[in-house]
Amino acid sequence: MSRGGPGRCPGPSPCRTVKGMSRHVTIRLDEEFHERLKARAAALGTTVTALITEVTERELDEDRKNFLSGIEEFADHWGYFQERFGN
């Protein structure tokens, strides 16, 4: 919960956002990890912020989780499919 002060929301209540507005989040990274992250973002032609946002959105995507779960189940039964239907 943010309180008033420099760079923070004024007043004693937490910050509120209007739908569609972005939020600022601060995370701490060790120097080596941050350098690796910057290098990956540069190689992909994007920013560190955009890369973190993309990876986080992907992690929170329920459809993706369901799809990956289905792949795992299919992989568990791959031997059966090969025996039953061949290569």
UniProtKB/TrEMBL annotation:
Lineage top rank: taxon: Bacteria
SUPFAM superfamilies per the UniProt record, alphabetical: Ribbon-helix-helix
InterPro entries with a match to the protein in the record: DNA_partition_ParG (IPR015354), Ribbon_hlx_hlx (IPR010985)
UniProt protein name: Ribbon-helix-helix domain-containing protein
Organism: Streptomyces bambusae
